[in-house]
Amino acid sequence: MNILITAGGTSEKIDNVRSITNHSTGRLGKAIGETFLTQGHRVTYVTTPQAVRPTPNSNLTFIEIETTKELETALLDQFEHQVFDGIIHSMAVSDFTTETTLSEDAFIEKLVAKLVKDGNLTNLTNLTDALYHSLDEIGKTIQPEKKIPSGTDRLLLFLKKNPKIIAMLREKQPQAVLVGFKLLVGVSTEELIQVGHAILAKNKCDFVLANDLEAIHGDHHHGILIDASGQTETADTKNEIAQLIVSKVEEKWRMQG
Amino acid sequence: MNILITAGGTSEKIDNVRSITNHSTGRLGKAIGETFLTQGHRVTYVTTPQAVRPTPNSNLTFIEIETTKELETALLDQFEHQVFDGIIHSMAVSDFTTETTLSEDAFIEKLVAKLVKDGNLTNLTNLTDALYHSLDEIGKTIQPEKKIPSGTDRLLLFLKKNPKIIAMLREKQPQAVLVGFKLLVGVSTEELIQVGHAILAKNKCDFVLANDLEAIHGDHHHGILIDASGQTETADTKNEIAQLIVSKVEEKWRMQG
Asked: Do residues B182 and B225 touch, judged by C-beta distance below 8 A?
């Protein structure tokens, strides 16, 4: 099979020296990649600078990206040249990217200017509408301050939605067996399965691996693999999860073929 | 000499899976640490998980921190037990830490509620004052939303000032030869020296190493070491900068002794 794996975590630049980073060691992606390679499959592996990687192999190609935008561009480029049989989208992708950053003083100055421009503020509905309108204008049009004044006690960072990569994967590669991932924090098994299945349905995945940050400690890694019919199988280490995903993707691919 | 070095870059948590990270490879700190060790000095080396480190050595002690708050705590703890002869503060420390995060909807709802509570909004001065007061209340009292609604198109991240570590270093270790660092982006040599000297004076450093991100490429690293009298010396690689800092700190220490 020709396999695409995304792993690691994206970063979104705030400025030249600061980013918002999604933490991911990449260890699960590495285990999945190595398991596919052991089974003789070809792997295109998209990852981020800080994540660990599978051992180099003649069937393995690396692509390195940092931001969600770079991820989108790299994937669209691959899809021009390759058709994938399986896609394992384990990368922790930022839902939001930076829009602008302002000191509290600059923010209030801009906001007052826009509110006043928008007119009557005495009416509650007007005020709410005017605030939405003003925030939208500030977010979209005001450049981050080049140099934050040193007396500034508070900064306001505007973040806007990133494109949904998982939806694009299904749209561009309808033939692929698609595995999505969902990480939650401190929820019940029922909620984990319910949210995982909702993600699967929404994004037309074949499987979703649902896991909880509080059930991941070193190599212990509790994961629940959910299929389209709502059936679940569990695994308790990264290697077990990798084995489970590889065997399910192979099985599904054989059934489709 | 008994030397303290800080290196790497701090991270500030946004939530369980995201942080704001100050980028720093730690390569300059590693070069400075290894040069002090080669000269037979003892080194306490405070660093961050992603940064590279000096080769282990019997005269070298590592302390690992992530946030600016952890850095402050770790340093205060060291100062209870150690007196340092030289302090090289090369860590990229976040000026700001996260205060709260809200979706645009939640932000506007809270803001309207507080503005209305504060009364008359028709007057421009009142509006500005009410906005400062409302933002302050929101920042300090509103918890981040546990789960960001999936329809949210914009997030507002409130950041507040971190304690100034360099000021605390001089206050707690008045006897130490103190070296501060200032990284700017795309400025003239004159501005670099002027800003570096201002930082030196403000924080009572003995030296400041001023450098520009645009003059750092791999091992090429242009740095200007400024002393209290405004004299400057330059170096063009990380090793040259390390040699320059170590020799200047040794010389200054001998003169004080």
From this structure: no
